[in-house]
Amino acid sequence: MASPNTRDRILLSSLALFNAEGLAATSTHKIAAELGISPGNLHYHFKAKALIVDWLFRRFEQRLETLNASSASITAIDDLWLALHLRFEAINEYRFIYRDMAFLASEYPALGQRAQDLTAHNLVAAQALCEGLVATGVIETSAEQARILALQMVFTTTCWLSFERLVPGRNALAQADSGLAAFYTLTLISPYVSSESRAYLDYLRGKYLG
Amino acid sequence: MASPNTRDRILLSSLALFNAEGLAATSTHKIAAELGISPGNLHYHFKAKALIVDWLFRRFEQRLETLNASSASITAIDDLWLALHLRFEAINEYRFIYRDMAFLASEYPALGQRAQDLTAHNLVAAQALCEGLVATGVIETSAEQARILALQMVFTTTCWLSFERLVPGRNALAQADSGLAAFYTLTLISPYVSSESRAYLDYLRGKYLG
DNA sequence: GTCTATATGCGGATAGAC
DNA sequence: GTCTATCCGCATATAGAC
To answer: Would the CB atoms of A101 and B166 count as touching at under 8 Å?
Structure first.
């Protein structure tokens, strides 16, 4: 068996560099240098840069699919807030994926396709989630409105961290705040929240706008 | 013009290739080949690829700043719809800028800074817009809610076209529909629209959901 | 203004010794 | 498993003839 240590260290170091400097700007030489190993050694563990990206992408997929699977059981605002929080943390850990998506899809078409598939799954999960919230009376909307809401939620979770870097005052160095991101996503459903569930939303509002 | 000068043709061809294949994947050789001129000739007109990107970015800035300047006079839903439509058309014409923003900012840091500045201006304009809509009674919200609304609108106009490519069924080849994008942005303010202004919104809803 | 030809450097990937 | 050394191709940018 190949040494599990070096292989895993390559993946961790690659992820850190991809997140910090971008997928395109991170060469295999840089990764090797960061680890203090030779480019040849890196190539022994991963015959191509694409394979490193592929592994990281797979881990990201699994994280999100796990979250998608558990999203069916969300029946209250605080469940939803926690779920959004966890999702933003996952996306933030692998933030290079959505941030550098255009480059990634262009350089590795197979991953571009899988990103579309993942988005499709996210949409299905979000729609089930919204329908569940309607069924349990947390929010009150038409079925059509619920579908648009689901789309907006997926859009926000997918793109928010990338957008944040464009907003002055939160530069790329600052750690993204998953809680704040989750709050912003919650504001999408805010207008439709029934009176019984408003308490928790107001609590969060005070916490993040104060 | 029947035969625009070579300099302009380079800019137009570069824009088309950047949009179609990505900023990173478009080499200066490709641009020259597309135009049927030599790489040397291209270099005569633009000493560096960065200068081509710079010019295109400047044109994009001007387009958006013009739209920002005129956004103060928006006092009705149909004005807003038109403004959003024009904005999405501009962003779509230069779609490589927001789509490849991470790469662009990493490769050309000066442009990354200007993108932040532009976003700041967009936010100011959107906030003025939302305040105006409140003042004229088109929407009814708290001042705090209006600020969040403005942020959501800038977020959506900035990132929507990039996100759209991730949604299965609308691949990169299909022309983006600025009208549909504008409608999705309008749904953000939909919950706050006062009864007098709802007619136009319902008209659009029928048009784009039907 | 436009061409051909070329310099330079980098990144991905490989070969073969240890 | 890890190293050193190297090949190859591509992309930016340049030099100099026409």
So the answer is: yes
